[in-house]
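ESCALATION

Customer reports they have been waiting on this structure for their group meeting. Please prioritize. Original submission:
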Amino acid sequence: MEHTEFAIGNEGREIFWNVQTFEIWLYLASAIALAIFFYGIYRRWKMWRAMGHEEIRWDQLPKRLKSLFVNGFLQLKTWKDAYPGIMHGLIFFGFFILFFGAFFDATEHHITAPLFDWVFLRGNFYLTVSFLYDLFGLLVFIGVLMALFRRYIWKPDRLGYKGKPDNTADDAFVLILIAVVIATGFLVEALRIYVTNPSWEVWSFVGWTMAHMFAGMDLETAKMWHKTSWLAHAVISMGFIAYIPYSRLLHIVTTPLNHFLISLKPTGYLEPIRDFENAESFGVGKLDDFTWKQIFDSDACTRCGRCQDGCPAYLSGKHLSPKKLVQDIKNYWLEQVPAAMKAKAAAKASEGAETPAEENGAQKALVGDVIDLHELWDCTNCMYCMEHCSSSIEHVPKIVGMRQHKVLMEADFSPELQLTYRNMENNSNPWGIGAHMRGDWAKDLGIKTLAEDPNVEYLFYVGCSGSFDDRGKKVAVAFAKILQAAGVSFGILGSEEGCCGDSAMRGGNEYLFQTQAQTNIEVMNGYNVKKIITICPHGYNALKKDYPNFGGNFEVYHHTEIIAELLAKGKINLKQPLTGLFTYHDSCFLGRYNDIYKQPRQVLNAISGLKLVEMERNLSKSFCCGAGGARMWMEEEGERINNMRADQAAATKAGTVAVACPFCLTMFSDGIKDRSLENMVALDIAEIVLKAMGMEEVKEPVDVCAT
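Update from on-call: job pushed to the front of the queue and completed.
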């Protein structure tokens, strides 16, 4: 065996042992690889900026840096799912540590040492980093094996579309490339340890173990194989770096950048159309109607399928897959961007107007050809895709933007929505019931309108369902009785109240939404309204997040928040025990949109005798009822989403499904009927609380089944 130049207490290794003549060539190869890498990033950057209109996504720097650190580096979004989170974490953090290993090596080379004048790899520090290099290298290799197993043996549906895998040659090549980089690195280490044989290299436990495979090999032969494997490792590693911008490895750059570029608007916020009078087109009918960031989104997508995993449209057999939609946009962008870049270059050279890429011979329409109309209208706006996307991609605004184009520019939407919008235009409610009847539900309760008494603390914004739907009116009555019993100062608008407009906005009719919103705001501001309570999460979300765009700045509360507060302050007394199993359904617009998960459960858990059991899909992973995104007013093909959710509720063996949304109440009531769940009933939390207050007769669930 050869003798090492280091004595005990000065443990270490010669950086370029056996390959000193290749040192300069490694630096040259590294420079070439990095040049290819940065050129690829620069080329991609020009592609990102070639299409789409301007959008500022670099303001509020501290919040963006926090998002970059939390989700880009710590990978918190990725860790939400155990297996893929661990798999990706092993690869990501393993490479992160190995990167520092390469840095330490580089700073001790003969060429760079004069620049830095430091020595790292000696003594106990060397032993520690040797152990860590091997540990994290091994973890990377394990992560790759997990990825290969998952993609090619396990084959979860999220990695494909409707049972068909969407694997590419690049997927396999990248995983194999990473595995080869790690394997050749360990091979180089093992051959060096075999020849030099220092006792402390036991800390390099993988290389030390592998060195035993070469027992009996001639030392000169081992040195020859070390040199060969070192060259292979160096070439493959440099190739790996250069390959990143031209492969799916690009997400190493795009995904962290997308976390930095997140929207800092409220969750689920939709940017309003600002100028109806002068705009030549509305919504998104071509790629250039997207913002550059919306197009960049598609390049940040890793095709992990988390969005698809909980999409109610996809899981109920509809056409929509959020993952496929984003990838279809990306593929179309890649087709169109060369022409766009040429057009920009020509315009810059001639200082003339740019020619949009899609006027240069494009044959496909974004909406209709690239994105199927069924996909566009399948979406319930439930936000599962955006909540769980590990790349912070924003799917819903794209879908609504394309809906706006079909509705406002082409008047191309379902007959059911045409009737809904006409009813909203004529009577400010989706059913078309006379607007003068909006306050009739409260006639026998002694509730004053703001016209009669504007000096109240809260406006109870009842909404269309609470005002006109027979089932919804029961919820409005129950909540009003709770407020009265607690001595809360409130009033209603009665016939002056209008539809919040949420279904119009999310169904693509932004003009109708703004008309409804501005009318409501004018009335509310006229009464100097400051605080509003809603029983509908859709109205709650619109009033809270969208109305401020038009001068409607109010404190908005959902009725579960108010009930929880009244209970906490002892203003209502739950004296009537309610026995039986209850399960709670998290409304998308209450939960994922507004993070209201705690208060409804606090209310239910405060009721004596009530036992609350959770559905398998709950909290941020709750399954949509199927009514959001204007789907409440449209026919549904195939398996009904609300029936699937009713099945999930039935699996808990609960007799009562507690809800906090009139849309969810309707969908659950229908699902319970369709599934013939005779021993189950859906009730709003306000109705349950009223029973627990002893203000309404308690019956068996089968006797109070929603109609």
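Sent to customer with the following note: The two ends are 88 Å apart (CA to CA).
Escalation resolved.
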